[in-house]
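Researcher: We're reviewing a set of sequences before deciding which ones to prioritize for further study. For each one, I'd like a predicted 3D structure that I can look through quickly. This is Ech hydrogenase subunit EchB. If possible, include the structure in token form so it fits the rest of the review sheet.
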Amino acid sequence: MNIIAIIIATIAFAIIAPVLGCLLAGVDRIISARMQGRVGPPLLQPYYDVRKLLGKENVSVNSSEGVYITCALVFTILAGGIFFSGGNLLMSVFVITLSALFFIVAAYSTRSPYAEIGAGRETLQVMAYEPMVLFMAVGFFMAAGTFDVAGVFALDAPIITNIWLVFLGFLFILTIKLRKSPFDLSYSHHAHQELVKGITTEMSGPTLAKVEIMHWCENILFLGWTGMFFIWGNPVSFAIALVAIILIYFLEIWIDNNFARVKWQAMLKSAWVVALVAGGINIAVLAYL
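Model: Here's the predicted structure for Ech hydrogenase subunit EchB, in token form for your review sheet.
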């Protein structure tokens, strides 16, 4: 990996991703409101919310909570920098998983029963989607011949043509990673889900603002993973990837507004079955071709 390229991409991601993620969250709220027959908030409402949180006093049970959240945000930005610099996809996956672990530890550090339940659910979500994410990275390697994301630019066709089953499996767990219903068990961006907000129950002020910014960055990274399936050596592929990202994100919003939350058992079983069938079969076929 080119360290200089990763550093530059990480700095750029730290600046651009929160802006794009904020606008994406605003679009999400507006579309969700229209689907529910409401006018909805203004486009920049997520920004107003975070700005208000940053201006509040930092009230926390202990100082370690804020440190863990800061680490989670830093690792999320680093994962984005690795990916968008064309670096190692598997390393990006590992770093974003490390960010999720810091988020979980932050909730556990508060010793709040509600936050601990949310942290437990967050752990289950990681256990549910991680196998399919690893299958995605392995499938990418087998299709592109390298773990480096920049390898897609040397392809004659998008990797989705070889790992379309892996892509379908990734779409399934993308709903979990974007924290959309029916798999938003630990935390939801929408206030209609529950009064006590699970894993972030004890987080407030600047700490909660960092959580929101982290999720904005996560969404941009995960949608970047989505677009990766549609890019190859032709510059036109960027436009195709962008259209695919828009359509898939709209599909995620539609799912979020039309499906009720499931139990964690259903999430875990379904995600593992999808990973085994979609990821396992596709990789097995590539291995023996």
